[in-house]
Every structure is written in structure tokens, then in C-alpha cells.
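User: Design a sequence. Structure:
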């Protein structure tokens, strides 16, 4: 049985791996895709401290992985479907079987909801973005579209006015879902134009975004809007399904933790975007991962000294 299994190989999971590896825990990290998480798909990360010129997301994550492996972190490819716990031992069910562990760090992240339209995946990272904080600065003096009408879409549209010269906020109804205060900020900003009752049917462009084809859902008319970027904010899904029977989640499915990253289930910690928190960024994910690993180490010591392991 492992001391610790980390689920998810994004910044939170890898940071937890660095700390757990250095602490000489018997630790395994499970990742269903390529290590690096969403951060690895970000072209340039400009706001991670220590890189004044920015650093490629893939490069930063490759360095984190190498650092974790240098401290002995074992990484395996597996899709964890369910985590259960009995008598302080966890069992992780994967497609290939079950893995037991004394402690678990859940670092599975959150995924943006996709529009599922042609061009969206093909041009992701080349004008299609799900993170204005990460990518907004690449659109100085450009025209961008923001899709969605909730708090996230409207707040990020306002944020983007710092860079872009024009923002087209495309919403499928003629009324925003966002709270009034947030709406007001957007309505008062002359750089934001609203494209009501419209859905994006296609993201256009060969090697980068050149426009979006939108359909007016009332008139049925379609129109091409020329934009340099498309920011999609139609909701997010935390990857917490595998623990929904085990830990307390908030109303949106994010895992609730205390400041030690401890969930409502002793020995199960959560770090990074899957956790309920204020700011979902690489810099906060790596901090969560470090705290979770140190807390897991203390937990394992306590369990051992109490003779429960
Ligand atoms: P959200 O509130 O669920 O809004 C999603 C928006 O996307 C809605 O306007 C929805 O349209 C639209 N949408 C959904 N699916 C779509 C599709 N397939 N095509 C086109 N449009 C689609 O999500 P969110 O903005 O990410 O916010 C999530 C939660 O976080 C909310 O509770 C929000 O209040 C909270 N939040 C709060 C703040 C803040 O307080 N400052 C900031 C960010 C987020 P409809 O309106 O027609 O359904």
C-alpha cells in the first residue's frame, strides 16, 4: 500500500509530488492524460513569478514534472473513476483495477465547459481561450469576443477592456445572468458591445482566430464577426465526481477544504482548481499542492503514531 496517491498531474498535483517526494513518502501520482494539466495548454504564462518574460505553459509544466521526478515521484497513467474509504484506508478504482493508499490528494482540476462548435478545439491556444487572466494581454488593441452571460463572462469582458480595444459580448438571450453590479460595470464600459440572442456556430480561422460565425436565435440570421480572439465563459465543471459520495462539495461541485487542504474526509486532501477557492491560477495551485503534501505527511505521522495504520 502506498503512503500517498496524488490524483491529477497539473500544477497542484506536481507541486504536491515535489513536496511528498522530498519528504521521502512512498508516493504515486496518477494522471489520465499527459502531465501538466490545463496549464500545459496555455501558450505563455506571464503571471507566474520568476519568469519576467513569461514562460510557455508546456515548458513550465515539463520543468515541474522533471523536478518532481528528481525527488522520486512515480507517475502512472490511469483514469481514477471512484475513491472509497474504509477504516482509514483509501481504495482508488481505475479502469485497470484498484489501488490502495493511506492518504490521497485530489488535484483533478476543473474543466471549462466547451461550446462544442467547429474550430473551437482546433484553434484553442491560437485565439480560443478559457482564461482572460492568462491570455488577455495578448490581445492589446485587438477585437475579441466573449461568449456567455454569467458573472464570469461579464467580469472577464470588463477585465479584457484593459487590453482589447473592443469586446463583443455574445449571449444567447437578451438578458444577462450576471449579477446587477457586475452587469452595470459592463454596460458603463464603452469598449463592450453586446451581441444579444446569438450563439456561436463556428470559430473561423486557419492558423489563428479570424472571426466567429454567429446565429441570431430569434431571426435565424447568421453573421460573421471579425475578431482576433474568443474567450469562452459558459461555466466550469470541477472534476470531483469520483469523490462526491465521500467529501463535502459546495453547490457547484467544488471540494470544500480547510486551510490545510483537508476535506471533510480525514486523510483525503484537495488542491488546486477542484477546490472551492477565490483564485484559480498556477500560482495558487502550486501553493495548495505544497500545503496538501505537508498536511498529508503530518496526517500519516499521526495515524502511524496512533497505531492506526
Ligand atoms: P454561469 O453563471 O452558469 O453562466 C453561464 C453563462 O453561459 C450563462 O449566461 C449561460 O446562458 C451561458 N451558457 C451556458 N451554456 C451555453 C452554451 N452552450 N452556449 C452559449 N451560452 C451558454 O457560469 P459562470 O459565469 O462561470 O459562473 C459560475 C458561478 O460562479 C456562478 O454562480 C457565478 O455567480 C459565480 N461567479 C461569481 C463571480 C463573482 O461573484 N464575482 C465571478 C465569476 C463566477 P443562460 O444565462 O442563458 O443560461
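Assistant: Done.
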Amino acid at each position: 500500500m502506498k503512503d500517498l496517491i496524488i490524483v491529477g498531474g497539473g500544477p497542484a498535483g506536481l507541486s504536491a509530488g515535489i513536496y511528498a517526494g522530498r519528504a521521502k513518502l512512498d508516493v504515486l501520482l496518477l494522471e489520465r492524460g499527459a502531465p501538466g494539466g490545463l496549464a500545459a495548454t496555455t501558450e505563455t504564462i506571464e503571471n507566474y513569478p520568476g519568469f519576467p518574460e513569461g514562460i510557455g505553459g508546456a515548458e513550465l509544466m515539463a520543468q515541474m514534472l522533471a523536478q518532481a521526478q528528481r525527488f522520486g515521484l512515480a507517475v502512472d497513467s490511469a483514469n481514477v473513476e471512484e475513491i472509497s474509504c474504509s477504516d482509514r484506508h483509501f481504495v482508488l478504482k481505475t479502469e485497470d483495477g484498484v489501488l490502495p493508499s493511506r492518504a490521497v490528494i485530489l488535484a483533478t482540476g476543473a474543466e471549462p465547459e466547451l461550446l462544442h462548435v467547429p474550430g473551437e478545439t482546433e484553434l484553442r491556444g491560437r485565439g480560443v481561450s478559457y482564461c482572460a487572466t492568462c491570455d488577455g494581454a495578448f490581445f492589446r488593441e485587438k477585437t475579441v469576443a466573449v461568449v456567455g452571460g454569467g458573472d464570469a463572462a461579464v467580469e472577464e469582458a470588463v477585465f479584457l477592456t484593459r487590453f482589447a480595444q473592443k469586446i463583443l459580448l455574445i449571449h444567447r438571450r437578451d438578458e444577462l445572468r450576471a449579477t446587477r453590479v457586475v452587469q452595470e460595470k459592463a454596460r458603463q464600459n464603452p469598449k463592450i458591445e453586446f451581441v444579444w440572442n446569438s450563439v456561436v456556430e463556428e470559430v473561423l480561422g486557419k492558423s489563428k482566430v479570424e472571426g466567429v460565425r454567429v446565429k441570431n436565435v430569434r431571426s435565424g440570421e447568421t453573421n460573421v464577426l471579425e475578431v482576433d480572439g474568443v474567450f469562452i465563459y459558459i461555466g466550469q465543471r470541477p472534476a470531483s465526481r469520483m469523490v462526491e459520495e465521500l467529501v463535502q462539495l459546495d453547490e457547484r461541485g467544488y471540494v470544500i477544504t480547510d486551510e490545510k487542504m483537508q476535506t471533510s474526509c480525514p486523510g483525503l486532501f484537495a488542491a488546486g482548481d477542484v477546490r472551492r477557492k477565490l483564485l484559480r491560477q498556477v500560482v495558487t495551485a502550486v501553493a495548495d499542492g505544497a500545503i496538501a503534501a505537508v498536511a498529508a505527511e503530518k496526517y500519516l505521522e499521526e495515524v502511524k503514531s496512533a497505531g492506526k495504520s
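The mean pLDDT is 95. Residues 115, 147-153, 155, 172-173, 177, 199, 233-236 surround NAP (CB under 6 Å).
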